[in-house]
Amino acid sequence: MDELYYLWQLAGGDITVELKKQGLIRSRPPILSIPNLVILLGQMFGRRDTAGLLDLRVIKVPLDTLRQRLSHIPYIANYPWLTNQMHVQSQEDLIDAASQLPLIIRERDTEYQFYRIVLYDRLLQVYPITQEVIIKEAHKDIPPPVRGAVWAALLGITGDIQKRYDMIDKETPTHTDRQIEVDIPRCHQYSELLSSGAGHERLQRLLKAWVRNNPHYVYWQGLDSLTAPFLYLNFNNEARAFECLSAFIPKYLHKFFLKDNSAVIQEYLGKFSQIIAFHDPQLANHLRSINFVPELFAIPWFLTMFSHVFPLHKILHLWDKLLLGDSSFPLLVGLAILKQLRDSLLTSGFNECILLFLIFPKSI
């Protein structure tokens, strides 16, 4: 259903328009929609806007445009053929031209997305046998509706994840609860999903579960931002979001969440400095001359794998590639950011560099 709705939107469907046609959405002055009370976790009381109340009416949306867009696709395209070597045989010729287009165009191409979704559905049905093929296909692109499942496959998630998640105590109060409650309302609040009351509750459970399941680590600010992309993609599957987070941190943030992580972070930033010096000596010398060291700007990058500094839609694309690399790949991402800002950095002093990193250019 999620995949069909996604394709329907690509074909021009707009659920807001359909709901307005049926009278389920009415324009009202914003002042009449303000709740009387909002508590820390985002729950609202005294809301006078009935649009937020449960309505059991079923609205049928027209599928004519989607049918027309996909009418010429051969029936065999619904069944990608995998050989004994798990090589995809039936789609290369069908989508070869579209696959050369920029990613942003491919993600808006209804026909191309249909082919890719069908292929990934087929591969995910027999995962983990198809893990190598999933990795190969992920190097091309990952369709948004299957991104959560594909990320889990890239991280090697298997087994009864729901049972493992259910066994973790997520209710008993811990000494980190207060800090988690403070951080959650600030985490990607531009996202309607994550800023909702249900989003806050799920994020809190995931963070408490991770802290409880990793007693040798502690909660550091930034873990909420690190968890947010997994929750966003698996909003109705907390167990998979938790397993992805649990596999992601040891691979890319090994020992970053120790109680005393200063030595680990210093070693990581030392490697980052060496990479900058090797690939761009001029930039490295300039930053060193103005005493603008990685400790001043790069710790939030690596502690959150850039999820604290970039908006969610950019993080999803960035992590599509990050998950295909090894633990050193984030260092190269950091280098790429500095390359993007190179001209501005070379002509800036210490104060200007600080301001530059406080407000990232939208072009990155």
From TrEMBL:
Keyword annotations from UniProtKB, A to Z: GTPase activation, Kinase, Transferase
Molecular function in Gene Ontology: GTPase activator activity; kinase activity
Coiled-coil zones: none
Domain Rab-GAP TBC: from-to ranges: 141-326
Top-level taxon: Eukaryota
This protein's name: TBC domain-containing protein kinase-like protein
Organism: Apis cerana
Lineage start: Eukaryota, Metazoa, Ecdysozoa, Arthropoda, Hexapoda
